[in-house]
Amino acid sequence: MYLNFLSMKTKFLNLLLVCCFCLVLANEEFCPQNCECKRSVAQKGPADFLKLKCGDTEKITELDEIGLSNIASEIIQFNLSNNLLTLFEPKIQLIALQKLDLSRNQLKYLSKDQFSELPNLRRLDISQNLISQIDIFSFSNLKKLERLKLNLNQISFLLEGTFDPLISLKQLEIANNPLICDCGSLWLLDWSQKTSVKLVSNPKCGSPQSLKGLPLRKLKLSRDKDCTNAHKYGGASIVVLKPFDKQIVFEGIPSNYNVKHLL
C-alpha cells in the first residue's frame, strides 16, 4: 500500500512537471519578440491575464514592432517604459488593460482620442517624456482612470476641461512641469477642489518669474479682482497689472520694460 502511494505521488509530480513545462512553452509561443510575459490570475472569474513588459533587450521605437493581435484581449498590464516611442496609437482595442506605463519615452504631444482603445484603463504613467501639448480630448474615453502621472514633462498650460472626462480620477501628478500661473490656470485649482482629485507632489509655478517656485495650491489670483479685465490674445490670458506706484503701463508690455524710446 505504501509503495502504491509512492507510485501515485511520483506520477502526480511528473504530471505537474509536464504541465509546468507546457506552460513555459506556451508562454514562449504567445509572448511577442523583445517582450517578457507573465500570467496573472484574475481576482474574479476563472480567466487569467497577461502582464507584458517590452524593450529590455532592444528599445522599442514604434508600437507596431510588437505583435499584439493574438494577445490583445488578455493584457492587463503593459510596461513600455524606458523606450524610444514618439507616438502611442494602438490600432486594436486592449479591452482588459488596466495599467499602462509609458514613462521615460519621447512622446511630445497627446492627440485627440489618444487612448480611445483602452476603455478599462485605471492607471496611466506618461511621466518623463517631452510632452508640451495635450489635446482637450486626449483623455475622452478614460472614464475608469484613477491615477494619472504627467510629471517631468514640458507642459506649460492645460486647456480648461482637459480632465473632465476622467470622472473616476483620484490622483493627478503634474509636478516638475514649466506651468504658467495666470488667469488661465485657475480652472485647474477649481476643478481639483470640486472633484476632490488630489494634486500629488505639490506642483509649482514655472512662470512668470515673480511666481516661479510658488506651489500651485497657494496661487492667490482671484477671478473677480485680478482676472475680470484679463484679455485673451492667441489663447494666452493677460492679467492687468496693478502697480503700487503711479506708472505709465502699456497694455501687453511689462511694467519694468524700458519704453522711454516710445514716449
From TrEMBL:
<dbReference type="GO" id="GO:0007166">
    <property type="term" value="P:cell surface receptor signaling pathway"/>
</dbReference>
<dbReference type="InterPro" id="IPR001611">
    <property type="entry name" value="Leu-rich_rpt"/>
</dbReference>
<keyword id="KW-0732">Signal</keyword>
<protein>
    <recommendedName>
        <fullName>LRRCT domain-containing protein</fullName>
    </recommendedName>
</protein>
<keyword id="KW-0677">Repeat</keyword>
<comment type="similarity">
    <text>Belongs to the G-protein coupled receptor 2 family. Adhesion G-protein coupled receptor (ADGR) subfamily.</text>
</comment>
<feature type="domain" description="LRRCT">
    <location>
        <begin position="177"/>
        <end position="228"/>
    </location>
</feature>
<keyword id="KW-0675">Receptor</keyword>
<dbReference type="Pfam" id="PF13855">
    <property type="entry name" value="LRR_8"/>
</dbReference>
<dbReference type="InterPro" id="IPR000483">
    <property type="entry name" value="Cys-rich_flank_reg_C"/>
</dbReference>
<dbReference type="GO" id="GO:0005886">
    <property type="term" value="C:plasma membrane"/>
</dbReference>
<dbReference type="InterPro" id="IPR032675">
    <property type="entry name" value="LRR_dom_sf"/>
</dbReference>
<keyword id="KW-0433">Leucine-rich repeat</keyword>
<dbReference type="InterPro" id="IPR051963">
    <property type="entry name" value="Adhesion_GPCR_A"/>
</dbReference>
<dbReference type="Pfam" id="PF00560">
    <property type="entry name" value="LRR_1"/>
</dbReference>
<feature type="signal peptide">
    <location>
        <begin position="1"/>
        <end position="26"/>
    </location>
</feature>
<dbReference type="InterPro" id="IPR003591">
    <property type="entry name" value="Leu-rich_rpt_typical-subtyp"/>
</dbReference>
